[in-house]
Write a structure and sequence with these properties.
The chain has about 425 residues and is α/β, with parallel strands linked by helices. The protein contains 14 helices and 13 strands. The structure holds glutamic acid. Glutamic acid binds next to strand 4 and helix 12.
């Protein structure tokens, strides 16, 4: 890859060749191809949707606190605008790479389509270690990224949001920088997941975890199972994992295991989630040293004898290597892409119901949509109004997916992809050929 000095360079998708057989983009493609075949898409349609629409790369020089300049690699990738402007978060993590962001952008297309909100799919990422950067360094990095992507972002073009390693704080810097670049006109709808004071929505922070819990409760209801006595293990204790764990325990499901990068914790009587959240918040965002359970590894957590498993950390966690040992009978994917495509048939054969990422974790982008609507109307909803709308939206999507899966005798993932790809392709056809 040539290291260009320009701030935003459009690169041929050809450059993004697979790095290994289970990379997230390959997993995304194999699910898309399966849906495309069932839906009889034309070769042209398959060609269009199997590639991102745009890849923007910028190298961001940032003045570090020690006086030196460091150059950070950053991306913004639009997968599709067929159903509306690009939408999706920005990830700050050391592992961020182009293939990963390509996959995450495509998953946003399918996610927005499956829950029927008027957006395409996009994702951003910066290869950095946010936990090792100062507040000032992070602010300069975020502002540099916003300047580099100023022509890409826009309330009707591409609307970023938080993802792993980012939060309302970064969104505040983005809306501030973007508005400065637009003669000081305040443009809150350019980004979602903002702090309340700057035009954020009530209920946005909890939205993803709440949605994960909603679809789990819906699935239990459809399976005729009672909540009493059920246990769950949650991998990942960031925004999604911790809030899912909290809602699950509030709804009477015993969360017996949690984990983060530092490892896992198991307690058969149930982990006290409030305590774990408090511990994390007073220990630099890490569970390291938490005393609420016996130590286990992240790998052990995935194969615990529990009823419900919520992978809410990274991609590629459930693979053919550990899928045969999974004991949960319900998996809700809080993370994007936690299961590799090769593991899908193993889980299906075991009769495990998997609520796929593009449905299970859509609660976040659903409330992002309501945030954008509120910004454009200049009228703000109460928390209960937001929750009611979001709950109804995700329940409707779950019903659509469940009904289709039952009718066609396919998995929830296959059904979700069929619904999503069908909606996107219908729009694509209406746009016509340019
Ligand atoms: N990063 C979140 C996701 O993966 C939220 C995206 C958004 O709100 O636009 O769905």
């Amino acid at each position: 890859m040539s290291r260009k000095k320009e701030e935003a360079v459009v690169v041929e998708p050809k450059m993004a060749e697979p790095t290994n057989h289970s990379d997230p983009y390959t997993s995304m493609l194999s699910r898309f191809y399966a849906a495309a075949e069932r839906l009889n898409l034309s070769p042209d349609e398959i060609e269009i949707l199997s590639k991102p629409a745009e890849i923007h790369i910028a190298y961001l020089p940032v003045a570090m606190d020690d006086g030196r300049v460091r150059v950070f690699e950053s991306y913004r990738i639009i997968h599709s605008r067929a159903l509306g402007p690009g939408k999706g978060g920005i990830r700050y993590a050391p592992e961020v790479n182009m293939r990963e962001v390509m996959a995450l952008a495509a998953w946003m297309t399918w996610k927005c389509a499956v829950v029927n909100i008027p957006y395409g799919g996009a994702k951003g990422g910066i290869t950095c270690e946010p936990k090792r950067m100062s507040l000032g360094e992070l602010e300069r990095l975020t502002r540099a990224y916003t300047r580099a992507m100023a022509q890409v972002f826009g309330p009707d073009k591409d609307i970023p949001a938080p993802d792993m390693g980012t939060s309302a704080r970064e969104m505040a810097w983005i809306v501030d920088e973007y508005s400065r670049l637009n003669q000081g006109n305040y443009i809150p709808a350019v980004v979602t997941g903002k702090p309340l004071e700057l035009g954020g929505s009530r209920g946005r922070v909890e939205a993803t975890g709440r949605g994960v819990t909603m679809v789990i409760l819906q699935a239990l209801q459809r399976m005729g199972k009672r909540v009493e006595g059920l246990t769950a293990a949650v991998q990942g204790f960031g925004n999604v994992g911790s809030i899912t764990a909290r809602y699950l325990s509030q709804n009477g499901i015993r969360v017996v295991a949690i984990s983060d990068k530092s490892g896992g914790f198991y307690n058969e009587n149930g982990i006290l989630i409030h305590q774990a959240i408090q511990y994390r918040d007073s220990h630099g965002g890490s569970l390291e040293g938490f005393k609420g359970g016996e130590r286990i590894t992240n790998a052990e957590l995935l194969t615990l004898p529990v009823d419900i498993l919520v992978p809410a950390a990274l991609e590629d966690q459930i693979t053919p290597a550990n899928a045969p040992q999974i004991k949960a009978w319900l998996i809700a994917e809080g993370a994007n892409g936690p299961t590799t495509a090769e593991a899908d048939p193993i889980l299906n054969d075991k009769g495990i119901m998997v609520i796929p990422d593009i449905l299970a974790n859509a609660g976040g982008v659903i409330v992002s949509y309501y945030e954008w609507v509120q910004n454009r109307r200049g009228h703000y909803y109460s928390e209960s109004e937001v929750q009611e709308r979001a709950d109804n939206t995700i329940k409707q999507a779950f019903d659509d997916v469940f009904t289709r899966a039952a009718a066609q005798k396919i998995s929830l993932r296959e059904a979700a992809y069929l619904i999503a790809v069908e909606r996107v392709v219908r729009a694509l056809r209406m746009h016509g050929k340019y």
